[in-house]
Every structure is written in C-alpha cells, then in structure tokens.
Amino acid sequence: MEYRQLGRSGFKVPELCFGCGTFGGQNDEFFKAWGAADVEEARKIVDICMEAGLNFFDTADIYSFGASESVLGAAIQHLRREDVLLSTKATFRFGPGANDVGSSRYHLTQALEGSLKRLGTDYVDVYHMHETDSLTPVDETLNTLDKFVREGKARYIACSNFSGWRLMKSLSVSERHGWSRYIGHQVYYSLLNREYEWELMPLALDQGLGALIWSPLGWGRLTGKIRRETGIPIDSRLTSKLVVDIGPQVPEEHLYKVVAAIDEIASETGKTVPQIALNWLLRRPTVSTVIIGARNADQLKQNLGAVGWSLTPEQIARLDAASQVPLIYPYWHQRQFEERNPSPV
Predict the structure, then answer these.
(1) Strands 287-292 and 210-214, how do they pair?
(2) Domains of the chain (ranges plus CATH)?
(3) Integer distance in angstroms from the first to the last C-alpha of the chain?
(4) Alpha-carbon dihedral of residues 225, 229, 231, 235, nearest 10 degrees?
(5) d(Cα 119, Cα 83) in Å, to the nearest integer?
(6) Which residues contact 174 (CB under 8 A, 6 or more apart)?
(7) CA–CA separation, 104 vs 109, rounded Å?
(8) What single string gives the DSSP state of each residue in 205-233?
(9) Separation of alpha carbons 58 and 305, rounded Å
C-alpha cells in the first residue's frame, strides 16, 4: 500500500481509505441500502484493511445517525489508537433542535464531542466540514476548527462538497488570521462524473489540497454488475429511489459507454471493473486517497486489488475519451485556449 501526503501537509495517508458508511445501517433505509455491518463484521473488515496496510477509516456523525461511528469505535478497540487514522465529519442535522445543524461554533463543539465519545477516542486525525453552511460566517467556523486543533481534539481539518469560491474564501480567511487551514477536500469524482476536474482540481493544485475521493465507483454503478443487456441487478442499492435521487445523476447511455470501455480494458488486464475504475482515479492529479466501501470481506478484498499495478497511458487515454462530457461555461470557453488554460490532467 502506497502512502501519500494529504495536500501540502506533512500528514501521510494510504492511497486507499475505508469508508464506514456500511457500518451500523440496520435501522436506516438510506444507509441500510449501503450495508449494515455490526461490530463483529466490522472488526473482520478492519483487520483485513490493517493487514493490507490500509489504516485510514472515514465516517461521519450522520451515517446511520451515529451508529457508524459507534460500530467503528468498537471495531478498533483491540488496536493501538496510534496505529489507526480516523476521519469523521459534521454539519448535517443531528437532532431536532434549531442549533443541531450547520457549522456554527455551538453545533460543531457539540458534534465533535459526540463523535469522540462514539468513536471511543480523545482525538480524530482529520475532521471534515461535511457540507457548506451558508448561514454561519466562515470566520466563526474556522476559528472553532482552529481551537479544536490547538486543543488536540483534531489533528487536521478538511472539508467536503465545497464549491470553489467558498473553499478559496475559507483558505484566505485561515491565512489572514494564521489559523489552521483545510489540507484536504473530500469530493465526489469517478469515471462517470468528472466535474471535479473543471474548477476544484485546479484550485487544489494551486493551493496544495489533497483530494479524498468518495463514491469512486459512481454511486454503485461501476461494480461490474451493471450492463446494457441486464440493467440494474435486484440486489443493487440503485433499486432504492431514495438512494438514486440523492446521489449523482448519470445518463444511461453515458453509463453504458463508460462500462464498455472498462470492459475492454478488463479483458486486456485480467482486472475487474471496480479495480480498473479505482486505479484510474489513483493516477489523477491531487488525489491523496480513494475511499472504498464494502458490505463484506469479499467485496473489500476485491477492491484492495486496485493497488500495486498501473493502467498504461494508452488505457488511461481510452478511459478518458469514453468518460468525457461537454464542458459547461466558462470552462468550454477557457479550454479553447490551451496555451493559457491547459487541462489539469
């Protein structure tokens, strides 16, 4: 397992990270569609990850309303805390109260204390703002996060799902006050949806941010089970309208075009569709780690097979061509002038 620096920090993370959204989802329709591993199953998954050199585990308070954090915390109790890297997030609603949501000092203080208790630890290695909060001043959020770092409750801070202008504003505020700055941006990026390359990747290259990729298999579409001839299998989470509506939208024809290109390369390499999709991401600029999920040990072992080898430049070019979509303004205009605005990839 290769280790990479997370952005412009000195912090190193494995190229694959395990996403714990599949932990503890028994009583939640949305997360049950992802998986519902209990403590025993989660401990097996954690041990397989650790043996492979994957010691980075990502969760969030909102995942199964705290159950994911609780299961993960119990699943790592047999390990030395310093051997494990933990990432969690806050911002989404976590309770019925007026202040049980957002990135205010009030909510974040409450949220981090709750996460630490459920995880059974006194610090997290990376603390993410899970989404933007347009109502809380950026200064208030970042001052609160800087306090967490100074208190030792969070080693590093990062964000997720930010727009380019809001992320740049946050970095500017941190720089102006000498506060801890975001070192990573957890983003959606896959062969099916490459919008990250338009604005956020150039920003990350310029500002030294590491990308942590969530849903690298296109919201369950690149598992190798979906084909034009067969459609979506009955055991796929994509049979849930709730799951489909809340995730990235992918036109069917685009999906099948990309899958066909992956299938060709799978026949050449002997690798699976998920392994090729993950390996493609690991070759992209700014990517520090790719967050993989698994409902069980077999799925996990297959995804771990995405590392230790590389697609050829020619194969990458074919995947790029198959997954390309028309740019929106102003990007289509800028890219016409490659000598001044080259593609980040």
Answers:
(1) parallel
(2) 3-334 (3.20.20.100)
(3) 24
(4) -40
(5) 15
(6) 142, 146, 180, 181, 182
(7) 8
(8) HHHT-EEEEE-TTTTTT-SS--BTTTBS-
(9) 20
Q: Which amino acid is at 157?
A: I
Dig out the tokens for 106 from the structure. 């009030």
Which among 181, 189, 187, 188 is positioned nearest to 207, based on CA atoms?
Answer: 181
Residue 203 is classified by DSSP as H
Read off the tokens for 165. Answer: 């202008």
- Position of tokens 């494990």? 84
Listed residue (8, 341, 103, 4) closest to 199, CA to CA = 341
Query: Is 0.70 surpassed by the pTM of this model?
Result: yes
Q: Region of 157 please: left (phi>0), alpha (psi -120 to 50) or beta.
A: beta
Tens-digit pLDDT profile for the chain (345 aa)? 999 999 999 999 999 999 999 999 766 667 777 778 999 999 999 999 999 999 999 999 999 999 999 999 999 999 999 999 999 999 999 999 999 999 999 999 999 999 999 999 999 999 999 999 999 999 999 999 999 999 999 999 999 999 999 999 999 999 999 999 999 999 999 999 999 999 999 999 999 999 999 999 999 999 998 888 887 777 777 777 877 888 899 999 999 999 999 999 999 999 999 999 999 999 999 999 999 998 888 999 999 999 999 999 999 999 999 999 999 999 999 999 999 999 999
Q: Which of 131, 211, 147 is nearest to 179 (CA)?
A: 147
Tokens 């609160």 -> residue: 144
Cis peptide before 330 (omega within 30 of 0): yes
Q: Judge residue 84's burial from the number of C-beta atoms within 10 Å of its C-beta, 0-12 exposed, 13-18 middle, 19 or more buried.
A: middle
How far is C-alpha 122 from the geometric centre of its chain's CA atoms?
A: 23
| Residues carrying an active site annotation | 63
Residue type, 337: F
Question: Which among 210, 209, 218, 285 has a CA at the least distance from the CA of 247?
Answer: 218
Alpha-carbon gap, residue 73 to 86, rounded angstroms: 10
Place of tokens 């055991």: 235
